[in-house]
Amino acid sequence: MKHYIKGGNNTKKETKKQLPKPITIIVNKVLPVIVLLVAGFFFIPYVSMNFQNNDVDHINKNNEAIMFYSSTCSHCRKVYPKIFWHNVLNFNNADNQIQTINVQNPNNKHYINEFAVQETPTFMKPNNPDMRVVSNDVQVINDFSER
User: Fold this and answer.
1) Pick from 105, 1, 16: which is nearest to 57 by CA?
2) Distance between CA 109 and CA 118 in Å, rounded?
3) Residue 49 in 3-state DSSP?
4) Helix, strand, or coil here: 9?
5) Fewer CB within 10 Å, N side or C side of the chain?
6) Please, are residues 82 and 138 in contact by the beta-carbon 8 Å criterion?
7) Cβ 45 vs Cβ 85: under 8 Å
8) pLDDT tens for residues 13-60?
9) Of residues 73, 137, 132, the one with CA closest to residue 103
10) Which residues are CB-contacts of 8 (< 8 A; sequence separation ≥ 6)?
11) What is the dihedral of CA 90, 63, 78, 37, to 10 degrees?
C-alpha cells in the first residue's frame, strides 16, 4: 500500500509565476542577440582601430581618400568609427572607400615622411597628395572626399 505525504510533491515551480512562452522566448533568445548586435555596432570599429594588423604595403590609387590615423589620438577615435562603417557599406566599391593607415605601426612609419603627415587624422587624395585636410568634422571630411 502506498502512502502519500501531504505536500511532499509540491515544488517551488508550481508556486512561481511563469511568463507566457512567447515572452520567455523573446527574453531568452532574441534579446541577447539584439544586445550583442548593438554592442558590436559600437565596439567593432574600436577593436578594428586598435588591434588590426594594418601593414600597408602600397597606396591604393582607386580609393576615394586616405586617412592617416593614430589609435591613441582622441580626434582619430572620434572619426574612425564613421570611416569604418563608410568602408563597410562600400565594401564592393573601392572608388568610394577610404584607405586607413595607422601611422603608429612601425611598418607604416615611412608614410609620415613620404607624405609629410604632421597631425592625425589627416585625409589625403591618393592621386594628389597636395590635396589634404586635417579634421574630425564629418561634414568637412565628406566635402573633401566628394571633391
Assistant:
1) 105
2) 12
3) helix
4) coil
5) N
6) yes
7) yes
8) 555 677 677 777 777 777 788 888 777 777 777 777 776 667 777 888
9) 73
10) none
11) 20
